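Input record (one chain):
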Amino acid sequence: MKRRTLDLLLTWLGALLTVALLGAGSLLLWGYNFASSQVKTQLAEQQIYFPPASAFANAKVGSEITPSMIPSVSQYAGQQLLTGAQAEVYADDFIAVHLQEIGGGKTYSQLSALAMASPNDAKLQGQVATIFKGTTLRGLLLNAYGYWTFGQIAMWAAIGAYVAAALMLVLTLLGLRHYRRVDDTSVL
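The corresponding structure, as predicted from the sequence alone:
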């Protein structure tokens, strides 16, 4: 095979790979934008706000703000919950703490079994209802966090694809330059 023919084939392959990487990067960027906007829109509609900064000054066990919440929850004090990262913190470090306190460390299924065994215990029935609602909200927020995380992964993959496309474009142009300089008679 002639060297010039090989250079031309590799240059065309590089050009096709550049286009494929640009296409992949564009699709990944679209996925990131879709996931991020869906999460933000859905969370904004719920109008959930973190407690104000003043609430963290009086943190104590058994109150709305416990000392365990200060490192994570306080960073979003007073903000509306709009991102997956915020949803994770609210679900795991705010709601989960309150669910532990309300249910005495028992899960919804454990409390539900106790409530079915004691149908006339109004306090227990109220606990079950509250734990159910809190667990449901926590699960929904963690789903938003998961969806948002996939969007973040897509964003980084898009950046990687664009960088690889730029590198491939440079290599393709260098290959084209080499193709034009190689003697037509040289053989591999």
